[in-house]
Design goal:
By secondary structure, this protein is of the alpha/beta class. It folds into 2 domains: 4-114 and 207-231, Peroxisomal Thiolase, Chain A, domain 1, CATH 3.40.47.10; 119-205 and 272-294, no CATH class. It is built from 11 helices and 8 strands. It has helices at residues 22-37, 52-56, 61-68, 85-98, 119-124, 139-154, 158-173, 186-191, 219-224, 254-267, 284-294, and strands at 4-11, 44-48, 76-79, 104-112, 194-196, 199-200, 209-218, 230-231. Strands 3-2-4-7-1-8 form a 6-stranded mixed sheet, with helices on both faces. The radius of gyration is 20 Å and the shape is globular. It starts with a strand and ends in a 6-residue tail after the last helix.
Amino acid sequence: MRDVAIIGCGMIRFGELWRKSLRTMFVEAALRALDDAGVDRIDGIYVGSMSSGLFVGQEHLGPLMADYLGLVPTPAVRIESACASGGIALRQGFLDIASGNSEVILVGGVEKMTDSDAVTDALAAAADQEYEVFHGVTFPGLYAMIARAHMERYGTKREDLALIAVKNHKNGALNPNAHFQREITVDQVLASSLVADPLRLLDCSPVSDGAACVVLASLDWAKDNGKNPVRISASVVATDTLALYQRNDLTTLNAVKESAVKALSQSGKSIEDIDLAEVHDCFTIAEIVVSEDLGFFKKG
């Protein structure tokens, strides 16, 4: 396996982007990444998108984005893996280069969520339709069960969840590309509308429109062509049962634990070597559980 590096990145501002379409958002982010990388060669494209068909009625994103970037007949594939779609797209680009098949790959993620009146149903398509969604389960409901189980088992308090939202909104206020750019307080979180007990509105991420892209290259190619590469030291994927009711422990995400152990082993690092972690925070409890299962904190 060859070493792979990131040589460019591009992102647009996230939000309710009424004047931008799915394709224009991706193209804008991709052009920024290509300009940042300073390349005129792309051997393949991987587009991560969870549910473009349900949100805006558009599937077959690989050829669409290749067309609108002027990169036909470059191989282009759409990747779907719910909230991990962008991350899995990056991994596929990583493997494409690591295998020796390609030298330079464009990877991106894009969602256009605010145009649809059926967002809840579209998001629920990522859950078990037969045994969960059919009976009325939604993702706020599923994560509410995780939160309640965590509170019962470890004594986690409502205020602990609220602090996650406060911290993340503070970070968002510093990010010019963030959907929301204002700070909030614990009291505001606790006073926001109840969505699924114990989760309130400000415990939940909003639906949003946006896109981000990176350009990957083999480390040797990047060095030979005068780039400033950031080497990817590990890339690992793991899965768990899709339905929450099938899991042995509601407060543990086994896929996170499994992938973290393998990624640290692959990179030759320990959890103590990590200085920054950007974790999935669709709901405040998600950040708590993921941070624990990565190994940064003990449970509770």
